[in-house]
Amino acid sequence: MLLVLAFCAAAAFVPSAHAAPSSVAPGSVVVIPVAGAISPATADFIVRGLARAADDHAQLAVLQLDTPGGLDTSMRQIIKAILASPIPVATYIAPGGARAASAGTYITYASHIAAMAPGTNLGAASPVQLGIGGQDAPKPGQPPALPGATPASGPAQKDNAASGALPLDSQSTELRKQLQDAQAYIRGLAQLRGRNVDWAERAVREAVSLSARDALEQKVVDLIARDIPDLLRQLDGRTYDTAAGAKHLTTAHAPVVTLEADWRSRFLAVITDPNVALILLMIGMYGLFFEFANPGFVLPGVAGAISLLLGLFALQLLPVNYVGLGLIFLGLAFLIAEAFLPTFGTLGFGGIVAFAIGALMLIDTDVPGYGVPLPMIAAVIVFSVLFIFGVSGMVLRSRRRPVVTGAEAMIGSMGVVLDDGLVSDTAQARADGSRDSPQDSLLHGEPDRVGWARVHGERWRVRSTSPLAAGHAVRVTGRRGLMLTVVPASNPSQEGEHT
Question: NfeD1b N-terminal domain: from which residue to which, for each copy (predicted)?
Fold first, then answer.
């Protein structure tokens, strides 16, 4: 999995074959293509594209837009850049079949010029409810439904239906605040650009949409153009007010430069995918776990720290539910603890449950293109379980292996007596390194016999309570300093008497 992420990161850093030239000629038209959900990466690309167009003294920036919507924070970041732009910004909903739904409608209203290609549509700008499960999409002409709402009846129902307002007895305070804020926001943009205010409010309140022809007739957009050249011909000679004053356009024969996403935008797009962010968190936690369990291995710690920081960076750009994030970390901690504590699966099961619930709660929005799908959560859980129990199995197997280094490795080793010098002399045993006192000999029942034996190919001083002749096989039962305690190998019942 690390190799997959490394490949994605490397691909993000490779320059695009269609990258824009290093500079834009003054008086050019800069086209910024935007397709897909409005995300932090999209906002970064558009903001930097508009700044570049202004710095290079382009006369017009065109956002070629095709989006189902996106994150509110990213949308507002883009709109701020448009309103502060010193050059006119045209939002062109294209090609045919494209749409500017939800966040795309706000961006269109904020632009100095709003244009659509034939066969496109915009609208459905109701704010999406935050939380798990979301809500059903409202039907055209109906206000968004609220969780737990009870439909009004009688005259009140008719009044609400006529006004498009939400039923007062069932409104959620949080959703009502979001709806009012969204209506005021798009109303202000419509008034700023002189576009249809009433329809803008209906797009938020009732989630209505318009085709290109209807949008032109209702003064929601300024013009319909077949393509970019047709758009530039229609804009030629017009003047627009910008943050830097009035700008006159001469775009009929202006050179067109199309910007493409650079490595930064592609990298942000990769790591801000909720699935990738979740995987980065998991790799980060397991990498640090490996490093702490095996200090000095280095690679797991380096990969884990980098992955964890990238995952946290991605999450701070996304609408994250921090309770879900906490449950994910708690679940991973439980799974790791299961490898070391004798809980008989209790912590492991709790970790799986906590991780699954946290992953479902992690992304706090129902915006299209966001959220962690159930198959992804299941795959991560299965991988985590296999990983943890695999590590647990390796730990248990390693604990059952005999010790191969240190003083403990001598216990149980076989050796051969080298001489007949084992004598009944406790004082000599103490002089040769034994720490036993006379009381030890009394406890043993008979004096120690001291001699030499070969153990592990080495010559060792040994002692035994049994008489041993040269060539007799012995088994080591203890070690004190440079003296080994042995018993005859043919009498295993005495093993452990002198440990």
Answer: 29-130
Residue 429 identity: A
Whether the CB-CB separation of 135 and 120 falls below 8 Å is answered with no
Q: How far is CA 37 from CA 75, 88, 129, 282, 295, in A?
A: 10, 24, 17, 25, 43
C-alpha span between 215 and 164 (Å, rounded): 20
State pTM to two decimals: 0.64
At 237, is the secondary structure helix, strand, or coil?
coil
Per-residue pLDDT, averaged over 461-474, amounts to 85
Are the C-beta atoms of residues 264 and 44 closer than 8 Å to each other?
A: yes
Amino acid at 69: G
pLDDT digits (tens, 9 = 90+) for 87-146: 999 999 999 999 999 899 999 999 999 999 999 999 988 876 433 333 444 444 444 443
Mean pLDDT, rounded, for 403-412: 69
Kindly state the DSSP code that residue 199 receives in the 8-state scheme.
H
Cα separation, 190 vs 184, whole angstroms: 10
Distance between CA atoms of 223 and 113, rounded to whole angstroms? Answer: 9
Residue type, 207: A
CA distance 306 to 147: 41
Q: How many whole angstroms separate alpha carbon 80 and alpha carbon 23?
A: 24
The pLDDT tens digits for 23-44 are: 678 889 999 999 988 988 999 9
Q: Are 180 and 194 in contact (CB under 8 A)?
A: no
Assigned token pair, 10: 């490397």
